[in-house]
Write a structure and sequence with these properties.
This protein is an alpha/beta fold. It is built from 14 helices and seven strands. The strands form two sheets. Strands 4-5-6-3-7 form a five-stranded parallel sheet. The protein has a two-stranded antiparallel ribbon with strand order 1-2. Strand 1 and strand 2 form a beta hairpin. The longest helix has 17 residues. It is elongated, with a radius of gyration of 27 Å.
């Protein structure tokens, strides 16, 4: 068996190998991201350190960064699925550190939230909805247009109203939420759809368990929260004043976009929230909730035939 040193000497003396290595070295050193890294660290690096790191730089060059070469997390092309490379300097050489890519971060957060909040589980047809699969009839044109514009114009840390989608049963309000969520996911933007009646039941059952505050914090801090079927729940003073009020107040102060679907228009929802299960009328408390909802979103009617049949 040939000694490895002899192999390297033989390869080094091979002209085709030398040419190929020179081509690779040239590609590496002219790669925009690598050039930028070398320029930023020119006071630390010397030529010897760069030369002995060509292999690492070549590995970095050929991988996806910020998911730019991957169509999905499942089809990640990198050495470690879900992790993208970051150049670092260690022990007088350039090395690669692998960190979670945007899609991996979103997927981890989604799985964490699904384990934490069971009411995240909405029907599969909603989770697979797309703008392309929406029936573009005139009765839903305005709602679809505003949904598309939201996704197109969304920027983090910039105040942008969500939508309050209201209308009769089965007109596609929840499906439209799913399409918005999936389009945002394609842009690596996290969102959460929660079915409100089930959410309130779940939170009530969590009062005696340490997970209640954690669940509420997850809802408060989600970049884009979608509350599906608000108004279908039985109103209690606790869910309205201790859960919904503080949740919406936090999102209003932090300018976090929030979406709603409901069978009620805004006036109908205010009337619904004004009466508790005990029959108590509390118009002022309902008005406070509605003030926050009006700040957070724009009302849009969704009309048309019942698409569930």
């Amino acid at each position: 068996m040939e000694n490895i040193n002899e192999t390297l000497k033989r390869l080094a003396s091979n002209q085709s190998f030398q040419k190929r290595y020179a081509d690779i070295r040239n590609q590496v050193l002219n790669h925009p991201e690598i050039k930028d890294f070398l320029a930023k660290n020119r006071e630390i690096l010397n030529q010897e350190m760069i030369e002995k790191s060509i292999t690492k730089l070549f590995e970095y060059m050929n991988q996806s960064k910020e998911c730019n070469k991957c169509i999905s997390l499942d089809k990640c092309t990198n050495v470690i699925k879900g992790y993208h490379p970051k150049l670092v300097i260690t022990r007088n050489s350039i090395d690669i550190e692998y960190v979670r890519c945007p899609r991996k971060i979103m997927d981890d957060e989604k799985r964490k939230n699904e384990r934490l909040i069971k009411s995240l589980h909405v029907p599969k047809d909603i989770l697979s909805a797309t703008f392309e699969s929406l029936q573009q009839d005139t009765s839903r044109y305005e709602a679809i247009k505003k949904a598309v514009l939201f996704v197109k114009n969304y920027q983090r840390d910039h105040h942008q109203k969500g939508l309050y989608l209201y209308g009769k049963f089965g007109v596609g309000k929840s499906y439209l939420l799913g399409a918005i969520a999936n389009e945002l996911a394609n842009n690596q933007i996290s969102s959460m759809i929660v079915y409100v009646p089930e959410l309130f039941r779940e939170l009530k059952n969590s009062i005696g368990d340490a997970s209640l505050n954690e669940k509420i914090e997850a809802l408060k801090n989600e970049p884009i929260l979608m509350l599906d079927d608000i108004g279908a729940e039985a109103v209690s003073s606790w869910t309205r004043d201790e859960i919904l009020g503080p949740l919406l107040q936090f999102r209003m102060l932090e300018n976090l976009p929030t979406f709603f679907t409901s069978n009620f228009n805004l006036q109908g929802l205010e009337h619904h929230l004004a009466y508790s299960q005990r029959g108590e009328e509390e118009k002022l408390k309902a008005a406070r909730i509605m003030e926050r909802i009006r700040y957070l979103c724009e009302p849009v009617e969704v009309d048309g035939p019942n698409r569930r049949y």
